[in-house]
Design a protein that fits this description.
Length: about 240
């Protein structure tokens, strides 16, 4: 009887000890979970069906983040970037030059001028300059500076010197200086000043318009000009040449 009682007491003590150890292990586990996740298994997060914050063996949340490549820019975005870069570019300067040949016509050259010459009063320009015809050959050289705006509009500065009347054994020099615009790198419009060797009226206005196509590595300017005169001795003509 005594032996049976002793065995019962020993079994109860062992059961109590095992239960106590189990409770201690469970408490330790819960403490570790709270320290690592901040949520206890008995919290409301579990009561309302929240996802278990504890990482599982299949959880890849600790994997390195994937790098997602950006989509390729569209053509409109590329064009917008190019336009933005174009707007920021400073104007650049270019210089070209070349020879000119052409034709000049002197209007009313056979009529007396309203500005008499002391040496030849009531004389026409043909008589004053010993010209046989109002049609004259032109030859000269031109310098042109282009301020490039990186768009459809450029600014041009033009200076040239020409000689006419060589076909009539006459040497009639003139010089021109113009400022103007260039559209689409081909169409030019300009106005400026014309200087001649005449004593009475050495200065005139000049206007010109032209087109400059590219031929290989050269530019081939084709220009038309008009020089008004108060005595109706207007001059007009055309020139062609090569720039490089």
């Amino acid at each position: 009887m005594k032996n049976r009682t002793r065995r019962s007491l020993s079994g109860a003590v062992c059961a109590v000890a095992v239960t106590s150890l189990a409770h201690q292990a469970l408490a330790q586990t819960e403490g570790n979970e709270i320290a690592s996740t901040g949520v206890a298994p008995g919290d409301d997060a579990y009561a309302y069906g929240a996802t278990d914050p504890r990482p599982s063996a299949f959880d890849d949340s600790r994997s390195p983040p994937r790098v997602i490549a950006a989509d390729d820019p569209t053509q409109d975005e590329i064009q917008a970037d190019e336009d933005s870069e174009t707007d920021k570019r400073e104007p650049t300067k270019r210089f070209v030059h070349g020879f000119r040949i052409g034709y000049l016509h002197l209007m009313n050259s056979d009529l007396p001028t309203d500005t008499p010459d002391a040496e030849c009063p009531n004389c026409s320009l043909e008589e004053r300059h010993d010209l046989k015809t109002p049609h004259q050959f032109l030859i000269g050289y031109e310098l042109m500076g282009r301020i490039v705006g990186h768009d459809m509009l450029n600014v041009i500065l033009v200076a040239n010197a020409t000689v006419s009347g060589l076909e009539q054994s006459r040497f009639l020099p003139s010089a021109n200086a113009l400022v103007g615009f260039e559209l689409n790198n081909s169409l030019q419009v300009g106005v400026g000043m014309n200087l001649t060797a005449e004593k009475e009226k050495p200065v005139h206005m000049i206007g010109a318009v032209g087109w400059t196509p590219e031929v290989g590595s050269f530019n081939v300017p084709i220009h038309f000009f008009f020089i008004p005169d108060v005595d109706h001795n207007h001059r007009f003509g055309t020139t062609v040449g090569v720039n490089w």
